[in-house]
Design brief:
Helix 1 crosses helix 2 and helix 3 packs across helix 5. Helix 1 links the parallel strand 1 and strand 2. The chain has one domain: 3-Layer(aba) Sandwich (Rossmann fold). The chain has 152 residues and is of the alpha/beta class. It has five helices and five strands. Helix content is 46%, strand content 19%. The longest helix has 26 residues. It has a five-stranded parallel β-sheet, with helices on both faces. The radius of gyration is 17 Å and the shape is globular.
């Protein structure tokens, strides 16, 4: 069965729920978890006349992104420690999260990706896309998608 699970998280409530279920699943099957967060790259914006310019330097942006990543990953590590599930953490910088997820799983030697999906349908799904759908489409590693029950 699965021995090493990559669990991408973005800190959202849905993602935190998925982490809880992933930890429970990993404990049940005796697997290790690598919690993963994809930090955004520094936004490059072109400004015209009369537009205020963001004074955040690339270095400061990277520092803030790293702080956010460590806070989000700390919550996943805490859940693993409480459940006595072996856990590592990993973060990388990527504006294409699905690629970062697949690369992290591959480089870490994971044999399963356990991730959340918002379960958007119809036009919303076409507009926003789904990182889970992209991972499912492009990954050669099995993917387990966690979705909360629909309430509508």
């Amino acid at each position: 069965m699965f021995k090493h699970i990559l669990v991408p998280t973005d800190g959202s409530e849905l993602s935190q729920d998925a982490v809880r279920f992933a930890v429970s699943f990993a404990k049940e099957i005796g697997a290790k978890i690598t919690a993963f967060y994809a930090k955004p790259e520094y936004p490059v914006t072109y400004y015209g006349e009369g537009v205020l310019i963001d004074t955040t330097s690339p270095e400061k942006f990277a520092e803030l992104a790293e702080t956010q990543a460590q806070e989000i990953l700390a919550a996943a590590i805490c859940l693993c420690q409480k459940a006595e599930v072996p856990c590592d953490k990993l973060t990388t910088t990527s504006d294409v999260p699905y690629e970062g997820i697949i690369e992290a799983a591959t480089n870490s030697g994971c044999d399963l990706i356990f991730m959340a999906s918002h379960g958007r349908r119809g036009f919303t799904s076409l507009l926003l896309g789904s990182e889970a759908q992209k991972v499912l489409k492009h990954s050669t590693i099995p993917v387990l998608v966690y979705r909360t029950p629909r309430t509508d």
